[in-house]
């Protein structure tokens, strides 16, 4: 049955490209999506798939029950866009000013709809259930994944697979990641309060700009002197705002930035160390402060066995020379929330192609990917579903632990 389904998915390429381009022309940012979830729900209903809308806010969950009882496998795609002006010169350029699909979520969504179509055509032959998770608001904080989980999207799910197309990876390549697959994301905002005054009389002031500058430098010592070199982390100050005039010492300074880690212990260490450094530096300079630290999503934790399954399926489809185990993403992804509840594996599909301008980084105004990557994601999804549902060893293991 596998080969037949792969061939059928190949036949859908033109339809799926049209869907992707339609979504690309009508992007919606996280937590405001209306047209996209409505389109997804209607498409799934037309396939005879059970659909639940408004999941966790604006998510859509489709459930395809096979002709025979068995395990349940879920597939996830995200469908939100970004507040970025589309600067590509293509016929399917975004029609919404200041909003575009600059990360590939439109392609993810079109691909998963194609997978649903193919599998729905053989539902009577399936042993088990396939759940299609169409998630809203992946790009925002808080993201849609946790809200969908709280609303029951993973109820009864045994395993979950997710994928991301990447413009910095060549078309046709597959990267799997064992263990950590993305970084955790935290954001901070620190306000330093001093005493303003004339620039020619600094001794009469408490300079928040100098204090904040010390913090920018001192934060990096947390990584170099507090974190085990065998582990890793990033502290990036992305915004430093203080004062306007050349001859005035301001009364406050504001630092904003992000922290990225993999290990939960390192995550805890960095937050505690940043707060302590802020406190002691401000006390030493006579300043006061407000320390704001918001934890977003954790790290993706890929299951070893399910990652091996993805590697096996992709190798059989595209050749072992196109599949490799790689390092985790330095960016964050709220797919991580799912991995806290079920076994899962998240993998990367190459969509880069400089010949068509598909080599700009993600979140760039000219971002694009080679649409043939639809075939690589879709066929890997189909192969993983069939392999998992047909894995008798896995069924026996599930029964033992039930």
Automatic annotation (TrEMBL):
SUPFAM superfamilies: Bacterial exopeptidase dimerisation domain, Zn-dependent exopeptidases. InterPro entries: Amidohydrolase, Bact_exopeptidase_dim_dom, Peptidase_M20, Peptidase_M20_dimer. It comes from the Bacteria. Coiled coil: none annotated. Gene3D superfamilies: 3.30.70.360, Zn peptidases. Residues 187-280 form the Peptidase M20 dimerisation domain. Pfam families: M20_dimer, Peptidase_M20. PANTHER family: METALLOPEPTIDASE, PUTATIVE (AFU_ORTHOLOGUE AFUA_6G09600)-RELATED (PTHR11014:SF63), PEPTIDASE M20 FAMILY MEMBER (PTHR11014). This is M20 family metallopeptidase. It comes from Bhargavaea changchunensis.
């Amino acid at each position: 049955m596998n080969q037949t389904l792969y061939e059928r998915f190949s036949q859908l390429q033109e339809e799926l490209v049209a869907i992707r381009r339609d979504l690309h022309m009508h992007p919606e940012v996280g937590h405001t999506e209306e047209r996209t979830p409505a389109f997804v729900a209607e498409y799934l209903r037309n396939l005879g798939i059970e659909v639940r809308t408004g999941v966790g806010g604006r998510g859509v969950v489709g459930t395809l029950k096979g002709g025979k009882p068995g395990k349940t496998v879920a597939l996830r795609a995200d469908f939100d866009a970004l507040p970025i002006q589309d600067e590509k010169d293509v016929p399917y350029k975004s029609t919404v000013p200041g909003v575009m699909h600059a990360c590939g979520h439109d392609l993810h969504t079109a691909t998963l709809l194609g997978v649903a179509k193919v599998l729905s055509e053989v539902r009577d032959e399936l042993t088990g259930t396939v759940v299609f998770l169409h998630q809203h608001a992946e790009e925002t904080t808080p993201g849609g994944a946790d809200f969908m989980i709280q609303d029951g999207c993973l109820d009864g799910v045994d395993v979950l697979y997710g994928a991301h197309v990447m413009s910095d990876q060549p078309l046709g390549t597959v990267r799997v990641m064992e263990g950590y697959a993305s970084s955790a994301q935290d954001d901070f905002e620190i306000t330093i309060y001093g005493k303003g005054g004339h620039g020619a009389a600094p001794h009469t002031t408490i300079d928040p700009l100098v204090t904040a500058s010390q913090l920018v430098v001192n934060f990096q010592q947390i990584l170099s002197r507090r974190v085990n070199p065998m582990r890793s982390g990033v502290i990036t100050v992305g915004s430093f705002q203080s004062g306007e005039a050349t001859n005035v010492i301001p009364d406050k300074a504001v630092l904003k930035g992000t922290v990225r880690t993999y290990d939960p212990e390192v995550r805890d260490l960095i937050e505690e160390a940043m707060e302590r450094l802020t406190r002691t530096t401000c006390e030493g300079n006579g300043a006061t402060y407000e320390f704001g630290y918001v934890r977003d999503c954790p790290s993706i934790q890929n299951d070893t066995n399910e990652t091996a399954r993805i590697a096996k399926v992709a190798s059989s489809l595209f050749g072992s020379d196109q599949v490799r185990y790689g390092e985790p993403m330095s960016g964050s992804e709220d797919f991580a929330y799912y991995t806290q509840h079920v076994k899962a594996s998240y993998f990367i599909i190459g969509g880069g192609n400089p010949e068509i301008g598909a080599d700009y980084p993600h979140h760039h105004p000219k971002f694009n990917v080679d649409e043939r990557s639809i075939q690589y994601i879709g066929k890997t999804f189909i192969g993983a579903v069939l392999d998992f549902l047909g894995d008798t060893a896995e069924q026996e293991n599930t029964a033992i632990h039930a």
